TrEMBL record:
Location of the MotA/TolQ/ExbB proton channel domain: 97-218
Highest taxon listed in the record's lineage: Bacteria
Subcellular location as annotated: Cell membrane; Membrane
Topology in the lipid bilayer: Multi-pass membrane protein
Annotated source species: Aequorivita ciconiae
Protein name, per record: MotA/TolQ/ExbB proton channel family protein
Length: 232
């Protein structure tokens, strides 16, 4: 009987032991407890993220529209030119309204000139089309490099403030508060890396999509010049 009471008492004592409260950490807590400097850095990074997403999707839709091309486009151009219907060929180019059709229309407008002049005109028009396709894409490359550096700047500022607090407290600063200040400062680096990675991936994806359109333009220019070189 005595052993039973002792065992019951031990179980009750174990149940009465205080349970360590698990400390949770939310993203909002990190953002709001980073101090004025940290919040400004986070705000700048959010603006850069918005600019990144806007430029990426705006250019993606523009490049996607530019890459659409009728597979029979050059065949129809060839038929019009073979019949001497240059105006009909130009009208077909205007209806397509793509970089490829713009180059073809430029070549059509120079028919009758030496092939070298036609080739030069097409190349100049191609440079303008590539410039339009790459408009603002370089901003993504800049953000990809600048965002991590801005985030790291916020971390350095937070670390300086944390150690300043430690120095001014004569070494009596509470370690919990000091550690909280340090991990809060690190959030700016995390945010900067996230924005930088998104901008970097978006930039490279747009470059790949633009290169495909450029290859289409080059292939079309070659086909057009070959068509003009065909014997009558």
């Amino acid at each position: 009987m005595l052993n039973f009471l002792i065992q019951e008492g031990a179980e009750v004592a174990q149940n009465l032991e205080p349970v360590a409260e698990e400390k949770t950490l939310s993203i909002m807590d990190l953002l709001m407890t980073g101090g004025i400097a940290g919040q400004i850095i986070i705000g700048v990074l959010f603006i850069l993220l918005g600019v990144t997403l806007y430029i990426y999707f705006e250019r993606l839709f523009a490049i996607k529209a530019a890459s659409k091309m009728d597979v029979n486009f050059m065949k129809q151009i060839h038929d019009h030119v073979a019949k001497g219907n240059i105006q009909g060929a130009k009208l077909l180019c205007a209806q397509n309204n793509t970089p490829v059709s713009h180059l073809t229309e430029k070549g059509l407008s120079r028919i009758g000139s030496p092939l070298e002049d036609i080739n030069t005109a097409i190349e100049n028009a191609g440079r303008l089309e590539v410039y339009n396709l790459e408009k603002n894409v370089s901003v993504l490359a800049t953000i990809a490099g600048a965002a991590p550096m801005i985030g790291f700047l916020g971390t350095v500022i937070g670390m300086v403030l944390a150690f300043h607090e430690l120095a001014t407290s004569s070494g009596q600063a509470e370690m919990g508060g000091l550690a909280e200040g340090i991990y809060t400062a690190m959030t700016t680096t995390v945010a900067g890396l996230i924005v930088g990675i998104i901008a970097y991936m978006g930039y490279n994806h747009l470059v790949v999509r633009t290169d495909k359109v450029v290859h289409q333009m080059e292939a079309t220019a070659v086909d057009f010049l070959d068509m003009l070189n065909e014997p009558s």
